Amino acid sequence: MKNGIHKLCSFSLALLVLFSTLSFTVEKHYCGDTLVDVAIFSEAKTCGMEMDGPEKPKPCCDDEVDVVEGQNELKLSSFEDLDLKQLQFLAVITYAYINGFQDLPKETIPHKNYAPPNLVCDIQVLDQVFLI
Fold it and tell me: Which region is the signal sequence (predicted)?
């Protein structure tokens, strides 16, 4: 069980590092006030109304680029860099984790081998008493 938990924690931390360092761009192309295309990781398709050349102005099209930047540097710290409060917290969490998975004592069931008495007749039918 510990091996499975260890693999799950390692995988989740690897995903956390991957997604915190991932950066991407979202490109949007507007024709007037209408959104024509949205593209992630590539260029957005245009509506075909752009004019070529520096002397001709763009009539109505607009390109918008949103850049989502991830973390560029990862801070690598060692165990010696922790202060006293962090060490106490780490010790408490470790103690609670180790002692939290102890087995409970086996329960004793006192009426395990008790057999109920045989019914000779159904008393509710005999007395005509029914639950409604």
Answer: 1-25
Find out whether 77 and 20 touch, Cβ atoms under 8 Å: no
CA distances (Å), origin 2, targets 10, 53, 95: 12, 66, 15
Q: Is the pTM above the cut of 0.85?
A: no
Across the strands, what pairs with 28? 38, 64
Q: Which of 65, 73, 28, 66 is nearest to 47 (CA)?
A: 28
Range of the domain at 60: 23-99
Ordered alpha helix ranges (H), 81-121: 84-99
Q: Is the dihedral of CA 53, 59, 27, 36 positive or negative?
A: negative
Instruction: Please give the chain's pLDDT, 132 residues, in tens.
Output: 888 899 999 999 999 988 888 888 899 988 888 888 888 878 888 777 765 555 555 567 888 888 888 877 777 777 788 889 999 999 999 998 888 877 777 888 888 888 888 878 888 888 888 777
Residue 7 inside a domain? The answer is no
End-to-end CA distance of the chain: 51
